[in-house]
Amino acid sequence: MRGSGLILVLLSALPAAAAAPRQGPWNVILVIEDTVRADHTTPYGYARDTTPAMAELARKGAVFEAALAQSNWTFPALASMFTGQRPATHGVFVPSDRLGPAQPTLAELFRERGFQTAAFTAGFIDTRSMGLDRGFDYVAGFHRPWDRGQGLGSMGQAMPPALRWLESKSSSTFFLLIHGADAHYPYDCPRDYFLRFIPPNPDADLPGPGDVALLQAFDLAAGVDWRGMPPEFIRTAEAMKKKPEDMARLSARLSARYDGCMSYGDSRLSALYAAMTRLRLWGNTILIATADHGEALGEHGGFGHYQRPMYDEVLRVPLVVWHPGVPGLAGRRVREPVEEIDLLPTLMDWEGWHSPPGTQGRSFRSLLEGAPRPGAGAGRYAQAARHGTGKKVLDLEAFRSGDWKVIRQGSRWELFDLAADPGESRSQLDREPERFMQLAAEMMRLKTRP
Question: Model-level pTM?
Answer without folding.
Answer: 0.88
